[in-house]
Amino acid sequence: VKDSLKNHISIHTDQKPYACEFCEKKFAYSRALKRHLIIHSNFANTYSCEYCGENIKRHATYKKHLMIHTPYCCEFCDMKFIEKGALNGHLKIHTSKKTYTCEFCNKKFIDKGGLTKHLKYHKGEKPFCCVFCEKKFVENRDLTRHLRIHTGEKPYSCEFCHKKFVDSGYLNRHLRMHSGEEPYSCECCGKKFIEKGDLTKHVRFHKSEKRYSCVFCEKKFVENRDLKKHLRIHTGEKPYSCECC
Questions:
Q1: C2H2-type domain location, by residue (predicted)?
Q2: Residue 19 belongs to what domain range?
Q3: In a domain, 14, yes or no
């Protein structure tokens, strides 16, 4: 495995790529850094409540704490909001009638604008074109996101590690690594995941969906990457080599 090779090479090079953000001490292995961070965990409060000043370590706990101070509550689902305007916007989900129906797939929409945008996907209308590669898009926001691939622009930055992202969705997924939030839960065993894709892969293990089959011994696997690893047993391939020995 490639990670095993990286760990092995650090023995020869004395590299310590994992640095503590609090005291700058460096480590050769990520697991060693994680053990070290426990020393700082007792005082490394990350989130400070703007209402009462309480310091909270985990983002998920911080969000729950804010609910104490949020006076506007939805009568339908008990969701709470700090501002009344945000509550009013949320209420449309419950109260607005979806009177506009798509003639192709029967999906319904609250307003005509939502239906109009949706119909473009069925009709194949892509009026927004990339000036670099001529790829076309249904909506201007999709074009804007695509253009960043060519320009290298990454406007969304992580407040904790300053890593930058092309899309706000990628940033939100990344932030869960810092907060520990795992919003996707398996109905079968209760295991939680940061990303929906990881949950989808996990569910296949319960359903025994093994779509990838070995051409040599017909053994089957849930994921393609597991099949690739298995094939090396038959081919003798060892793609990772140490430069030192």
A1: 18-42, 47-70, 72-99, 100-127, 128-155, 156-183, 184-211, 212-239
A2: 1-38
A3: yes
Residue matched to tokens 């779509």: 211
**Is 7:240 a contact under the CB 8 Å cutoff?**
no
In a domain, 227, yes or no: no
Most confident of 49-53, 73-77, 185-189: 185-189
* d(C-alpha 167, C-alpha 175), whole Å: 13
- 10: confidence class by pLDDT, cuts 50, 70, 90: low
> Is the residue at 107 inside a domain?
no
Q: Which of 183, 146, 174 is nearest to 63 (CA)?
A: 183
Q: Looking at residue 172, which CATH number applies to its domain? A: 3.30.160.60
pTM, 2 dp: 0.41
- To the nearest whole number, what is the mean pLDDT of the chain? 78
The number of folded domains in the chain is 2
In the chain, what are the helix, strand and coil shares in percent, each to the nearest 5? 40, 15, 45
Structure tokens at 231: 């094939």
Residue 118 in this model has a pLDDT that exceeds 80: yes
Helix axes 168-179, 59-66, angle to 10 degrees: 100
Q: How far is CA 228 from CA 21, 61, 101, 239, 240, in A?
A: 36, 40, 45, 12, 14
